[in-house]
Amino acid sequence: MFDKTLAYHIEKLLLDYEGNYFKTKDIAKALKIKKHKYKDLMDTLYGMSKQRRIRRKDRTFGIENLQKPELIVEGIFDARSLVKNRSFAFVSSPEGDLYISAEDIQTAYHGDRVKVSVHSGSGGRKYGRVISVVKRAKTTFAGTFQRYRNSMYLVPDNGKIHTHLMVRDANGARSGQKVVMNIINWGSRELQKLPIGDITQVLGESGNPEVEILAVIMEYGLPLEFPEEVIDAAQAIDGSIKDEDIASRTDLRDLLTITIDPLSARDYDDAISLVQSGDEMVLYVHIADVAHYVVPGSPLYKEACERGNSYYFPRRVIPMLPTRLSNQICSLRPDEDKLALTVETHFSASGSMSRQTVYESVIRSDARLVYEQVDALFDGDKTDISEPIAAMLTSLHQLSKVLAKIRQEAGYLTFSLPESEYEFDDDGHLINIHRSRETDSHRLIENCMLVANQYICQRLSKGETLYRIHEDPNEDRINVILDILRKYNVDVYLQENLNKTLQHVLEELKTESFHRVFDRQILRSLKRARYSIENKGHFGLAMTYYTHFTSPIRRLCDLVVHLQIKDQIHHRPPRFTRQELFDLAGKATEREMIADESEREVDWKNKRIFMKKKLGDEFSGIILAVQKNRIVVELDDYPVSGVIEMATVKKERFDFIEQYSRMVGRKTGKILGLTDKVTVMVSKVTDDIYFQLIL
């Protein structure tokens, strides 16, 4: 049997005598191997030679040239394959993705920056060996504390951590509790010693939604509290609006103005108005003037740069700015005078723009509406919305449809990707999960905000600014998806450009099941949107100029863009250098990725908590993905996905047909392919949600 500890000592011995070759008996003698371990020695020697860690000549072993690297590089360690119990990992480096054998990873963990020696294997394929860890991605982990016999472990919540972690000091934790742990020693892979650390905080019982959210917050290092100087700075702000403020701005307080937000929202950073005069419509998009209160160099601005954005979890928000600003002074609450930046756009009846401008304003919202109210009005239901506001909303609805048509003609991609909405009881226990749906009220707000964002970007593009970019996709990845769609009898015609091609494909998905599967696959084949100082356009929106301007309460980019547009309005020289904007773009992108990942992690935890209550229950669902050894199924009743491991399927054995993403039964010929309906039973909920296929 291959012995990892023995391999470590063999390698150390042969490196000391590099270039020399030794018989097995000489190695056994040098390492004081006893007779009953001789077979393990042989297995380990031959295993190491297969791994190219040592060289074999006839019946002798040594190290010669094999260990000499072609070069040394640094990169980011990727442990996702190790988590799936595979015997290798990768390092993303300037040399590309380097294959790393599990025996050569040293003490690297996911996200660590590592130094790697690069070698050429058979066929010229490059592979690497981790020499050292340059910088740890994390030293603090959240997870579940477990005792096993005389040992204590942390089972990390982070699904990319490929081992359990040893606990030295439990700090009073009990098995099953959610805890936070700090690593004090990273162990040794060769000596089979796991990293070890101390519990620094006990969060509560695993499975409690509030505790699980707190664990994610701690895992991602999100800021729970504002520093004292930031709180003091927020408290010191005089929220009253002075006469001189009003005198220097356009007074729009008499203009009928509304906000439309989710029911749970407290930070209202955008409001809209519409005035119809003959054939002309004038749209006003009012955005909270956060930059009036948060200026570069201040504690509030520095903290906003650190946080990058707000973080939204079920029943909990971590704001970018203190609540005195985000929920009170800056929030466009009804019946309160507020400072704003207003984008004014004039439209003809056909929806073409005749002119646009932006200016500082004072507004007063007349009503705080929620999406459900507005949709009820559009559906012809009775609502408590006043007649003047209802009339304005009806006109806005028509304008929104015109704007949507114009965007569609330009190549705007519309996906049907509902999000998960969680329902809790009064005690905070999760009792249901629903699919959200995008409605006309959502599209109305989106279309209005796109008008403002696009215009502001065009204004600022004459100098340096932050762009929201979505680069053109890799056509090879798109072609893979298109090929699969053809195999599922979806008409795929190449149009004048890729946007139009994908638009056509999305329109050809006639059923809900096809949209549930292929909208997601197409979106994943596209590149991720990000912030940049280079304008590369926005592929998904089919826009040449685009930035984020409409959410300065909760996004760093929008706050920076506000500061820039205010400088332009007042004819001041630019306050940000190109390097400063580059750094801000990087920070905003990084923090957005952390927000997305942490919010997804909370979603996943909530779904596992919910499905544990459904063990043994049967559900219908559709197949989202077919892989070599498993099938991914999304339930019809809930927006929850789980896996069927094919080894657990009874009564039938299936063969995987990769090019068609299908399984075919050997005895019955039954086909399991994408979008197919299946019946499953919830069989297990651990690291994943597992289903049993009901045939």
Rounded mean pLDDT score = 92
Distance between the termini: 40 Å
What kind of oligomer do you see? single chain
Q: What structural category arises from helix and sheet content?
A: alpha+beta
Strands, total number: 34
Major sheet details: 5 strands, mixed, barrel
> Rg from C-alpha positions?
30 Å
Enumerate the strands of the largest sheet in spatial order, edge to edge or round the barrel.
4-5-6-8-7
Number of domains: 6
Helicity level: 25-40%
Overall form: globular
Strand share of the residues?
Answer: 25-35%
Count of helix runs: 17
pLDDT < 50 runs, ≥5 residues = none
Keywords:
OB fold (Dihydrolipoamide Acetyltransferase, E2P), globular, 34 strands, 32% helix, alpha+beta, single chain, 695 residues, five-stranded mixed barrel, 17 helices
Please explain how this structure is put together.
With 695 residues, the chain is α+β, with helices and mostly antiparallel strands. It has 6 domains: 4-62, Arc Repressor Mutant, subunit A (Orthogonal Bundle); 71-135, Nucleic acid-binding proteins (OB fold (Dihydrolipoamide Acetyltransferase, E2P), Beta Barrel), CATH 2.40.50; 140-206, OB fold (Dihydrolipoamide Acetyltransferase, E2P) (Beta Barrel), CATH 2.40.50.640; 228-469 and 535-602, no CATH class; 475-526, no CATH class; 614-694, Nucleic acid-binding proteins (OB fold (Dihydrolipoamide Acetyltransferase, E2P), Beta Barrel). It has 17 helices and 34 strands. Strands 4-5-6-8-7 form a 5-stranded mixed β-barrel. The protein is globular, with a radius of gyration of 30 Å.
